[in-house]
Structures are given as C-alpha cells and as structure tokens.
Amino acid sequence: MNSSHRLLLLCEIWAVTIGWASSVDFVSHNMKEDLQKLKEHFNTSDKALFRDPVFLRNLQDLESRFEEGEQKVLMGELLDVYLSILEDMMNRTEDDNLKRSITLTRNRVSDLRKHHFQSKGHLKTQLQDLWAIETDDPLVQRKAVRELTTVFHKASVLGSKKKVPARRRRRQAGRRRI
C-alpha cells in the first residue's frame, strides 16, 4: 500500500468518524426495541401502509415553510395526536407485553412533548375557536362585516412588518487587534 492510498484511507476513516460524531441518534435502543414490538404486532410491513403517509407529509419542507416557533407548535400538535393514538392502542389491547411497550413509548413521547414542545394552549384554543365559527350563519356574517375593517387593518400591519434576519455573531478569535 503506497502513501497516497494510506492518506486516502486515513481521510475516509476520518470522514466516517466525523459523520458518526455529528449525527446524533435521539431514539434510544430501548425505544427502538419497543417500536419494533409495535411494528410486528400491528403488521406495519403491509404494502397498503406505504401509500399516502399520515404524519410524514406534515414534516416535508418543515424548516423551509415555517419559522421555528411555528415548527414547534406544529410538532407539539403532531406529538399530541401520537399520544392520543398510543392511548387508544393501549386501551384496545389485552396483551400485557404490548401494553408495556405502548406505555413506555407513550411516556417517551410525552416527555419529549413536555420538555421541548410546551403547549401554546391559548394559540390552540383560539385556532379551534376560529375553525368552529359557523360561516353560513347570517348573524355571524353580519358581525364579520362589522369587524372586517379592524381585522383587515391589523392583518395589513402585521403582514407589512419586515422579517428581521437573525444576527450572526462573528468569531473574533483570530482577529484580535494589538
């Protein structure tokens, strides 16, 4: 083996090592085992499950389409739906081993939700109230017309605000003046 091959091999080893060090796996070994049990029990290898994803479509282009705060609200709501699904699955099963796996998985999802995606309860409540408005109700329509000037003005002000890009700090380590 000549020196150029050794250098190439060394660079490849370094690149692989750096890749492993920079990629963090947040899913623990125990959680992977519990999820594997769930996958086997619920037969997730069925070909019908590969078409039209339920949750993954919400994650496509998440970072490019939404600001960080919006991403967190969306992810918090997505985790809430998972918690509800896992709760229902646990209530429907009689198998104690499966219940244990579901409970442990649900607890991990709940901890993630609680520690990183605190509920924006007031925002969620307001959105639910907006979605519940009876748009075909004549009284609601009359009130809407009465309030439109104020709403339109506030929306215009908010929409015209310029986005202030996040400021980046420069490292001054090598640039000290004497």
TrEMBL record:
It holds the Pfam family IFN-gamma. The keyword NAD does not apply. The keyword Signal applies. GO terms for molecular function: cytokine activity; type II interferon receptor binding. Residues 160-178 have a biased composition (Basic residues). Residues 159-178 are annotated as: Disordered. It is found in: Secreted. GO terms for cellular component: extracellular space. Residues 1-23 form the signal peptide. GO terms for biological process: immune response. Its main location: secreted. Keywords: Cytokine, Glycoprotein, Secreted, Signal. InterPro entries: 4_helix_cytokine-like_core, Interferon_gamma. Belongs to the type II (or gamma) interferon family. This is Interferon gamma 1-like. The gene is LOC108920881.
